Amino acid sequence: MTQDWNDEAYYYDDYYDETPGRRWSSLALVLSGLLGVLIGFACAACVGAIGLAFLLIPTGSTSSSASTLPTPEVIAVIPAVPPPTPQPVNPPPAAPEPIPFASGGLGLSQQEWEQRYGPGSQSETPGYLWYQGRYLVAYQEGNVSYIEQRWSPETAITIDDARAQSGGLIPTDRQYVQTYSPEGRPDLVVDLHLSQSLASRFSGNVWVGGQPGNFTVSYNVFETGVTRMVITLGNNPS
To answer: Which of 31, 61, 83, 199 lies 20 to 30 Å (CA to CA) from residue 220?
Structure first.
């Protein structure tokens, strides 16, 4: 049996039902369609935004930025090396300190001697001066190098007294060396001494017959006693 499309009953009975349930079903279908269209547009917009973002961001920007960053400079830390310990250097030997000089006569400067015994007067022997009419003195390098004292036979003294007097005219650091009489001169008694401080008072060759610092005290001894005493540098009594 063929449906008559012009029959109004067809439409009203089968497709256009006036009942409320049918009307809401049709409305739901329409709304579902509209919602689908809206969701489609929203999804398309999201996809487009993501694509546009990829287009705006240059490819390899991350690597370019990384490549443009300055490469950190590697600083090598070298441990500090302490300076080498200076090796002790042997200092040059210090000059020996001058030995203090003390004397009652021999080795004194002329000024020092004359402060004690006053000015001298010319003797019969050139280069020798008398002091107080008692001491005959000669100088070398400005210092006393010879002292002579005399006695007459009537005023002669013992050798012990003569040695006591000579002790006040020689350096205090003297060291006794020996006593002797020159060959063929039994009347001459010679005491040889050494004074380290005396050696510093003279620089020339004044130590005839001896070494630097040597000096002699010689006594002319006769039956009446000592009549002459001579204190002189070196080891060459006369």
So the answer is: 199
- Give helix then strand counts, H and E, for the chain: 6, 8
Quick: pLDDT tens for 22-42: 454 556 565 666 666 566 656
Distance CA 144, CA 203 (A): 13
Mean pLDDT of 2-23: 48
Tell whether 116 and 224 lie within a shared domain.
yes
Is 237 in contact with 180 (CB distance < 8 Å)? no
Residue partners of 229: CB distance under 8 A and separation at least 6: 148, 149, 150, 162, 165, 166, 217, 218, 219, 220
Question: Taking 90 as the threshold, does the pLDDT of residue 159 lie above it?
Answer: yes
- Residue 117's nearest CA partner among 147, 161, 158 is 147
Residue position matching structure tokens 């049996």: 1
Q: State residue 85's pLDDT score.
A: 74
* Phi, psi (deg, nearest 5) at residue 161: -65, -40
Count the domains in the chain.
2
Residue 70 lies in a domain: no
Within a domain: 101: no
Where in the sequence is the domain holding 218, given as residue range(s)? 110-233
Q: What is the pTM of this model?
A: 0.61
Contact 237, 145 (CB under 8 A): no
Residues 206 and 125 both lie in one domain: yes
pLDDT per position as a tens digit, 105-140: 999 999 999 999 999 999 999 999 999 999 999 999
Residues 6 or more apart whose CB falls under 8 angstroms from that of 125 comprise: 136
Burial of 47 (0-12, 13-18, 19+ CB in 10 A): exposed
